[in-house]
Amino acid sequence: MRVVGYYNSFSNTDILEQLNLKALTHVNYAFLLPRSNGQVYFINKENAKKVISVCHSRGIKVFVSVGGWCNEKDKPLYPIFEKICTDYEIIQCFVDNIASVVEEYGFDGVDLDWEYPTYEKKSVFEFLILRLSTKLHNMRKEFSIAIYHSVDGEARYDRIIAISDYAISNLDFVNVMTYDCHDEKNHSSINLAKKCVNYWVNFRKIRKEKILIGIPFYAKPSLTPYSTLVYKNNKNADNDFCGEDSYNGRNLVRKKVKFAKANCGGVFIWAINYDTTDSYSLLSTINDAKR
């Protein structure tokens, strides 16, 4: 099974070499940021090179994740993606610039994280996916996207139906963001993961091996990292709630990994920087559970 860990380069916590990376098959370096003219940029080029070096030395593939919710100035990026997709020449420029970064740095693939294309952007989003997929696969690189969660086996949101079956057919796998949900007490429950897998596998007929479910290493609504919760009280490692916050403790993480092994292609994490480096590590929990 795939275990994909996003590395949040915006975080001030640089603990990569102290983490239990044995759990991971892939690391997504987040983020390569877009400009409206199709150009792309990193906040810290040397940090990206270090992550690639460390992970490759341990046999872990490294993707560059393009986009995210906001840039380094906390400005949402969806208007930038929408601007790029108003012009097919800019789309091609965007694709070529991403491919150049992949080639220059030695990334193993690309993860596109547009949060979120709307239904009216469905055709241009599909065009972007096709162009980027063709470019990357000709380079023998892999390609994934991150997408919003679905609910109750239906596409409640236009940001879900904007993702066409044809677009997905051009991807190697899909990271379904099974977290930040407001419909249940826990923002990232096992029930939400099951609903999302049901939608994509049983309703949309996507091969189950392509679908990955999300494990958040943070709490909502405070956004407190899992490591902070545990350092405050190590009993929080085996809980899923702390005051008004909900999160994924070790027991829930074990359940998600067990479910993923049987029903989909694996799990992914936002973000590995938020893990502990001791016996309470969620990466260690995942590594043990996936065996």
Ordered list of secondary-structure elements with their pairings:
Elements: E1 2-8, E2 26-34, E3 40-41, H1 45-56, E4 61-68, H2 78-84, H3 88-105, E5 109-114, H4 122-138, E6 142-148, H5 158-161, H6 165-169, E7 173-177, H7 190-203, E8 211-216, H8 226-232, E9 241-242, E10 245-246, H9 250-263, E11 266-270, H10 282-289
Parallel strand pairs: 1-2, 1-11, 2-4, 4-5, 5-6, 6-7, 7-8, 8-11
Antiparallel strand pairs: 2-3, 9-10
Helix pairs in contact: 3-4, 7-9, 9-10
Please tag this protein with its features:
single chain; 291 residues; alpha/beta; TIM Barrel; eight-stranded parallel barrel; 10 helices; 11 strands; 36% helix
Tell me what the structure shows.
This protein is α/β, with parallel strands linked by helices and 291 residues long. The chain has one domain: Glycosidases (TIM Barrel, Alpha-Beta Barrel). Helices cover 36% and strands 20% of the residues. Helix 3 (88-105) packs parallel to helix 4 (122-138), helix 7 runs parallel beside helix 9 and helix 9 (250-263) packs parallel to helix 10. The model has no long low-confidence stretch (mean pLDDT 95).
